[in-house]
Amino acid sequence: MITHEDLFKVVKFLDSDFEPYGKRSRDEDWGPDCSCWCKHFVPLEGDLRFDWGVCANPKSPRVGLLTFEHQGCREFEEEDEAEKERFLKELGVTVDEHGVVHFPKADSANDG
């Protein structure tokens, strides 16, 4: 089974990525990253989908690259609300009345 550590060994780091992955400072050049619902971030399958995907934005230096959700780029475009809700429903993610996000438990048959 592929792990986060395996993906960090093969992901390409660019100068335009946020530190510590690249040279872009969140303090001096702040902007959202893929975890803020970039509409061009295509998640991987399985449990890695919560953190890893591929950038599909032709304007981004990360286009076509394996991307950790916090690497970021200056070409972020936010996903619309309807698509966010559809995606969360598909993943089995719920948000309670207090705004707390609840992720589905991993299938115990796939553990270890």
Give the helices and strands, then pairings.
Elements (H helix, E strand, L loop, with lengths): L3 H7 L30 E3 L8 E4 L10 E3 L12 H11 L2 E2 L5 E2 L10
What does this structure look like?
- With 112 residues, this protein is of the alpha+beta class.
- The protein has helices at 4-10, 81-91, and strands spanning 41-43, 52-55, 66-68, 94-95, 101-102.
- The protein has a 3-stranded antiparallel sheet with strand order 1-2-3, with helices on one face.
- The termini are close together.
- Residues 107-112 have low confidence and may be disordered.
Main sheet makeup: 3 strands, antiparallel
Q: How many individual helices?
A: 2
How many β-strands, per DSSP? 5
Based on CA atoms alone, the radius of gyration comes out at: 15 Å
Largest sheet, order of strands side by side? 1-2-3
Strand content: 5-15%
Termini, distance in Å? 9 Å
Secondary-structure element string: HEEEHEE
Output the structural class: alpha+beta
Low-confidence stretches are 107-112
Helix fraction by DSSP (H/I, runs of at least 4): 10-25%
**What is the overall shape?**
globular
Query: On the 0-100 scale, what is the average pLDDT?
Result: 81
